Amino acid sequence: MSIYVGNLSYRVTEDDLTQVFSDYGTVKRVQLPTDRETGRARGFGFVEMESEAAEQAAIEALDGAEWMGRAMKVNKARPKEDKGSRFGGGYSQRY
Question: The RRM domain covers which part of the protein (predicted)?
């Protein structure tokens, strides 16, 4: 299971997030997606912790907490949705 962390400062690093979340348990992995074109952080990330209890404790403590001038949005990550066709058609061609 993974935790979604949103509304992050663009200056946040993986080490920063690891440090904040380690107060609630062992952090296994941190991901900060970057923009493909600019290489700049996108303002959100994902944190994976060693146990479900540690994840829940971090979510309860950090959701809405102000950090680096922003109120963080912290909750359980949802699986990535399949957005279908890039062009919005959403149908398959049949011949």
Answer: 1-79
Question: Hey, what CATH class is 2-76 in?
Answer: alpha beta
Give dist(CA 40, CA 10) in Å, integer. Answer: 7
Task: Quote the pTM value.
Answer: 0.81
Alpha-helical (H) ranges within 1-95 are 14-21, 52-62
Residue 48's Cβ-count burial label (10 Å; 0-12, 13-18, 19+) is middle
What's the rounded Cα separation, in Å, for the pair 31 and 8? 13
Each domain of the chain, given as residue ranges in start order, spans 2-76
- Burial of 55 (C-beta count, 10 Å sphere; 0-12/13-18/19+): buried
Query: How confident is the model over 48-74, as pLDDT tens digits?
Result: 999 999 999 999 999 999 999 999 999
Q: Mean pLDDT over residues 34-59, rounded?
A: 94
